[in-house]
Amino acid sequence: MTSPIKVDNLTKRFGEIVAVDHVSFKVRKGEIFGFLGPNGAGKTTTIRILTGILKPDEGKAFVAGYNVVEEPVKVKQRIGVVPEVSNAYVDLSAWSNLMLIGELYGVPKKERVERATKFLKEFGLYQARNRLVRGFSKGMKQRLLLCMALMNDPEILFLDEPTSGLDVESARLVREKIQQYNDDGKTIFISTHNMEEANLLCHRIAIINHGQIAAIDTPENLRLQSMELQYVEVLFNKPIKKEELMHHPEIVKVVPAGNKIRIYTANPSAIIEFVVEFAKKCEMRILSLNTMMPSLEDIFIKLVREHRENDFYRTD
Ligand SMILES: Nc1ncnc2c1ncn2[C@@H]1O[C@H](COP(=O)(O)OP(=O)(O)OP(=O)(O)O)[C@@H](O)[C@H]1O
Ligand SMILES: [Mg+2]
């Protein structure tokens, strides 16, 4: 079976900037595929190419089996998009927006009404259906955008940071809905800069930075790859020299951080025991002790560095 999304060597430049830099990946049917990267990584540019808004400078992309440059209409008929910037008309009501987009996609009147009613109820917007979108809160607008994206019953959903700027409750509702539509068999491509969100939702994650994909893997495997970026942060009641702490085979490095000490390790629980013993032996007290997961930034730096080194040594 062909992949719902297939991208080969995709490249997009804006003047000097290479926004998308020879990116290749395949999304499997029924998968929630995350595009995880910081501001300016190239997430939106990739989505705009895949949804037929921008033309790539190099490479090819196929969505639902169609080349996005050669057959953009066929692609658009099969996808739903929640763009980075709202595409709802603020001077129309939620209901009118849904009718309009349904009409644009050629959804028959009866189904338009049925679908709009169903989605507005599911997303908690039915009471507000006749209000102008101008008066909607950010969370309401974002939920409406999801309803709009679903009006043509798409095979594939593209969501560009759909929970960005939402409160915890609204973000959870949006995630639940995404999961539900995935359970119904839809393939989902979601961009985010939120590591936790990617972990929660995605079957696989592509980590993108400076237009390049540094890694594509399951959340579990990505976490394993960055295990040695975890650290135990400890505050003793007396200053110590970092060298005094280095006597453990599972300590990768020790770095002072203000009055605290960061001990990098793939095995935090062993190091916590070691630190407690160390404090006893030196007759010191531990004032605070925390295990910290690597930040997204840390993982990017590691993966991007490895990615570059691999490129450098590649001989094929
Ligand atoms: N229309 C444009 N003209 C010029 N430069 C652009 C344009 N669109 C994007 N860029 C540049 O391309 C790079 C990638 O931008 P893009 O919007 O794809 O990033 P992003 O990962 O979506 O970031 P964010 O998390 O901030 O939304 C950035 O350096 C951006 O400044
Ligand atoms: Mg973006």
Description:
There is one protein chain. With 316 residues, this protein is α/β, with parallel strands linked by helices. The protein has two domains: 5-217, Rossmann fold (3-Layer(aba) Sandwich), CATH 3.40.50; 227-293, Alpha-Beta Plaits, CATH 3.30.70. Helix content is 36%, strand content 28%. It is elongated, with a radius of gyration of 24 Å. The mean pLDDT is 91. Residues 43-44, 84, 160 line the site of magnesium ion.
**How would you describe the shape?**
elongated
Global mean pLDDT: 91
Instruction: Report, as a whole number of angstroms, the end-to-end distance.
Output: 29 Å
The overall strand count is 14
Major β-sheet profile: 6 strands, mixed
* Overall number of domains: 2
* Total count of helical runs of at least 4 residues: 10
Give the % helix. Answer: 25-40%
Percent strand equals 25-35%
Secondary structural class:
alpha/beta
pLDDT under 50 segments (min length 5)? none
SSE string: EEEHEEHEHHHEHEHEEHEEEHEH
Task: Enter the CATH topology name of the largest domain.
Answer: Rossmann fold
CATH superfamily of the largest domain: P-loop containing nucleotide triphosphate hydrolases
Which strand order does the major sheet show?
A: 6-7-8-3-9-10
> What small molecules does this complex bind?
adenosine-5'-triphosphate, magnesium ion
Quickly give the CATH architecture of the largest domain: 3-Layer(aba) Sandwich
Overall CATH class of the largest domain: Alpha Beta
